[in-house]
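yo

u said u wanted the structure for the complex thing, so here. seqs first:
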Amino acid sequence: MGLEQFKNRNVGQQNYVMLDLEHTPQTGMGKFRQVVRRTFKAELFVGLWVTMREMINALFRGQMHTVKYPLEKLPISPRYRAIHEMLRLLESGHYRCIGCGLCEKICISNCITMDTRYDENQRKEVSEYTINFGRCIFCGYCAEVCPELAIVHGPRYETASEQRASFSLFEDMLTPIDKLNLQQEYDGFGAVTPNADENIKKTPLAY
Amino acid sequence: MEVVTYTNVETFVQHLPEVTAVGVWIKALIILAVISAIAGFGTFIERKVLAFMQRRLGPMHVGPYGLLQLIADGIKLFTKEDIVPQNANRLIFMVAPIITAATAFIALAAVPVFPDFTIPQWVPVLGGTFVPSIAADLNIGILFVLGMMAAGLYGPLLAGMAQANKWGIIGAARTAVQFLSYEVVTGLSILAPIMLVGSLSFVDFNNYQQGGIADWIIWKQPVAFILFLIAGFAETNRTPFDLLEHEAEVVSGYATEYSGMRWGMFFIGEYANMITISIIAAVVFLGGYSEEGIGWLTIILKVGFFFFLMLWIRAAWPHVRPDQLMWLCWKVLMPIAVINVVVTGIVMMV
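structre next:
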């Protein structure tokens, strides 16, 4: 395989159109002819048609761009790292966290605080678990390091709060037990968006 | 509609026994109320149409489909502080918006708006009053309307010069430039239809074109129609010629220092002028209204089309520079208008 195909930079899908830039007329007659030609070329009506076409597209063909944001939301990428969620085991409904403490260790902004103890069956249970979202930088290390896929990032990105430091408790992040069937697995860091195939295209700098 | 006008007219009736004067009063109040409402509604329509043409939704949150946005805007305009800048000429600054709004409505006095009707007999005091379609049926209606709209340009001119603001000064200068340029074209373009009809009255224009679509003056005077439309856009300072207050260049031009209802009066005046120009274009060139059947609906459709055309063009076209406006008016449109008048005269003579 030679380097030739990598040296061809014109690999984009676009159709480039060369503009037909005419020279500025110098003589009076040339200027007059230019005015007459431009006047009767009816290019202004092309502009009118374009706006009318867009209006028809928007009103009758469902191409309205507006998203009424608080009422409607655009889908976000599965890689998005927003407020954490604590997942449950689907079979038993028990929370997945085994209290290993890896997330607390790896947290580079020291915002995760957890405490564990042994319950009556000598199993570890989480007695206290908080994340300080005033400090959290949403790096995602906690979700990456979790061996049980217990702590993940959810899609809830509206994090405005009245206080600079706002904490989340374990119970707040835990999937509600009655919504267990709606619990979504986190696709993780390598996840691609559902429409990723459409977005793939060669770049001009493919080499 | 007439129910609203009791308190104003009741005292008036005793002094003026002549019935037609009461009718004219009622008509004036109807015009004032309805046209201001339509002018306000026009701002909503404009925002919606521009939004659709840019594939947006426009105002949506106040009321169903944003219909009550008007009320929200009105409350805002009425309750805003009325600021007069420190170095401004106080009197002229405060009077200027009134000139724009008042002349716009005075011009409507000689324009046929809404059908004539007689108030039914069971209505107390006013029963049997005949309300004409034109408040003042002048025999020089066109001259009066064009003159009144031209006088309206004193509003922006004085406002711009009185407010001690450089953007206002530029806006005022542009007003003078635009005023001098297009007024010639307006007069000359409408001269040819006047020669054809032989009258300056809107009613005569209307009667001249009663024979159906084939009788419309637009077929005999297409050049005059286009010239009048161009000049009309300049007269109402709509987009291809909105030099007076183009935000990208002169902040807000003559309206830079205005706030609250004084600014709102400029706005109402502009929209009333748009309606007036639409009515003139519909009556003079597109056959106007007819008395029988659904004739009144057709003129509303025609006026609506011209109003929509103004919004449509605002969405589509960029605006011109002041020097381009002068070049266009003096070097292109005025010669064409003069040639049109001469050719019309020759055709009529032969």
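The beta strands of chain A are 84-86, 112-118, 124-132, 151-153, 167-169. Chain A touches chain B through 17 residues (CB under 8 Å).
cya
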